[in-house]
Specification:
The protein has about 70 residues and is mainly α. Helix content is about 85%, strand content about 0%. The N and C termini lie far apart (about 50 Å).
């Protein structure tokens, strides 16, 4: 009986994991961020190379993701 319960729990967890992946991959949360991707890319492209030489990679990433 316990084995059947564990199998059912595993199947339920697998199903809900798949549903969550499908919703996220389908653009549910990704669409708003892709609207800004082009703007961020253009902004970073306009920065001089000296900016990247004098600032740490993590600092640039944190500014972009704020």
């Amino acid at each position: 009986m316990i084995l059947l319960g564990l199998a059912a729990l595993y199947l339920a967890a697998t199903f809900f994991s798949w549903v969550a992946w499908y919703v996220m991959a389908g653009g549910g949360a990704a669409k708003p961020s892709t609207a800004c991707d082009g703007e961020v890319d253009q902004k970073l492209g306009r920065l001089p190379l000296k900016y990247f030489d004098t600032h740490a990679h993590g600092d640039t990433l944190s500014r972009v993701t704020e």
